[in-house]
């Protein structure tokens, strides 16, 4: 019974020793091995064997890229304003031995190094530059941290500024400035819109004026062409029908009153040809040309018949012709009187006095 128990105990001890001698390292992990307290090697991923009771695992590291977020740190800018800056670091362990033995606590070391470097960088910038130069701050931080943590077996891949919080009073001033800038841009856009609208309206008015002027020009040209054709037809009709001086004189007198019908006519000069035109009209209504001197008595005596004179017996033909001549003369006198009345009325309308020569 006792040998059996001893064998079981020996088997258990052997299994325990064998299991302690085997180490399986996961992927992207690294184990530092010490032998009697001294670093010997670093185990990589896979199956590894140790000497039981001699070798032991000191530290385990994750070789993947890791993220470290620091607490918001108060930093003073060049213009003596305190801002709270929150940073994010992306780092990766490249040498497990150095990370374990070159620095006691690499996380704390990276945090403190970030704070001191950040204060040095922000201290040389004013607030406005700090808020607008995040890329420059990130680059300078990464350069300083990567240079220092290289001997620790740690590589800084990226450094990002997560937040920059200025004091509340500065925030209010910045908000007011932003509102003022937005109002300014809105006023500029509104003014630009009004300017464009006025330009478009002026351009439309210009185009309208040009089109109206072109329309008036075409209308004036058409009216002038119509009047020219009308004058040409009248001229051709007068010359074709061979109008004499009597008709032209009558049309001349008929046109004179229309000269005073304009609203702006305040002065009218009666032409000197009016008397001659009246005479022509008078001769036209009398049916005779201007009378010449009467023949002498001697010629009448010679032309008289040699027969006995008939006294007291008037010639009927001579009497009727004399009566017709008298009626024609009276009609001519009436026409002349009417023409003179028209001329006087026209002169009274425009405030002028006819030529005294026309009264005779």
UniProtKB/TrEMBL annotation:
<feature type="compositionally biased region" description="Polar residues">
    <location>
        <begin position="286"/>
        <end position="295"/>
    </location>
</feature>
<keyword id="KW-0472">Membrane</keyword>
<keyword id="KW-0812">Transmembrane</keyword>
<dbReference type="Pfam" id="PF01145">
    <property type="entry name" value="Band_7"/>
</dbReference>
<comment type="similarity">
    <text>Belongs to the band 7/mec-2 family.</text>
</comment>
<dbReference type="InterPro" id="IPR001972">
    <property type="entry name" value="Stomatin_HflK_fam"/>
</dbReference>
<dbReference type="InterPro" id="IPR050710">
    <property type="entry name" value="Band7/mec-2_domain"/>
</dbReference>
<dbReference type="InterPro" id="IPR018080">
    <property type="entry name" value="Band_7/stomatin-like_CS"/>
</dbReference>
<protein>
    <recommendedName>
        <fullName>Band 7 domain-containing protein</fullName>
    </recommendedName>
</protein>
<keyword id="KW-1133">Transmembrane helix</keyword>
<dbReference type="GO" id="GO:0005886">
    <property type="term" value="C:plasma membrane"/>
</dbReference>
<feature type="region of interest" description="Disordered">
    <location>
        <begin position="286"/>
        <end position="360"/>
    </location>
</feature>
<dbReference type="GO" id="GO:0098552">
    <property type="term" value="C:side of membrane"/>
</dbReference>
<dbReference type="InterPro" id="IPR001107">
    <property type="entry name" value="Band_7"/>
</dbReference>
<feature type="compositionally biased region" description="Basic and acidic residues">
    <location>
        <begin position="331"/>
        <end position="345"/>
    </location>
</feature>
<feature type="domain" description="Band 7">
    <location>
        <begin position="20"/>
        <end position="178"/>
    </location>
</feature>
<dbReference type="InterPro" id="IPR036013">
    <property type="entry name" value="Band_7/SPFH_dom_sf"/>
</dbReference>
């Amino acid at each position: 019974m006792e040998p059996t128990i001893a064998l079981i105990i020996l088997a258990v001890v052997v299994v325990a020793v064998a299991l302690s001698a085997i180490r399986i390292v996961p992927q992207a992990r690294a184990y530092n091995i010490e032998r009697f307290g001294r670093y010997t090697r670093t185990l990589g991923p896979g199956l590894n064997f140790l000497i039981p009771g001699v070798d032991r695992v000191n530290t385990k590291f994750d070789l993947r890229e890791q993220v470290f977020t620091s607490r918001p740190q108060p930093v003073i800018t060049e213009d003596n304003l305190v801002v709270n800056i929150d940073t994010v670091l992306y780092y990766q362990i490249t040498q497990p031995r150095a990370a374990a033995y070159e620095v006691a606590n690499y996380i704390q070391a990276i945090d403190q190094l970030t704070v001191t470097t950040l204060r040095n960088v922000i201290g040389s910038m004013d607030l406005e530059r700090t808020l607008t130069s995040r890329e420059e701050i990130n680059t300078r931080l990464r350069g300083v941290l990567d240079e220092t943590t290289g001997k620790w077996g740690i590589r800084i891949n990226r450094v990002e500024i997560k937040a920059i919080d200025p004091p509340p009073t500065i925030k209010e001033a910045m908000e007011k400035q932003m509102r003022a800038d937005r109002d300014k841009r809105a006023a500029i856009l509104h003014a630009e819109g009004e300017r464009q609208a006025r330009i478009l309206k002026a351009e439309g008015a210009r185009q309208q004026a040009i089109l109206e002027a072109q329309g008036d020009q075409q209308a004036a040209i058409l009216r002038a062409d119509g009047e020219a054709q009308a004058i040409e037809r009248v001229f051709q009709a007068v010359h074709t029908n061979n109008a004499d001086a009597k008709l032209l004189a009558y049309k001349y007198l008929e046109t004179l009153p229309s000269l005073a019908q304009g609203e702006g006519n305040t002065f009218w000069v009666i032409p000197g040809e009016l008397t001659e035109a009246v005479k022509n009209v008078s001769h036209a209504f009398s049916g005779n040309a201007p009378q010449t001197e009467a023949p002498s008595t001697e010629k009448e005596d010679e032309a008289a018949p040699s027969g006995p004179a008939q006294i007291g017996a008037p010639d009927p033909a001579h009497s009727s012709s004399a009566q017709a001549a008298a009626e024609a003369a009276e009609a001519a006198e009436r026409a002349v009187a009417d023409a003179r009345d028209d001329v006087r009325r026209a002169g009274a309308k425009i405030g002028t006095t006819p030529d005294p020569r026309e009264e005779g």
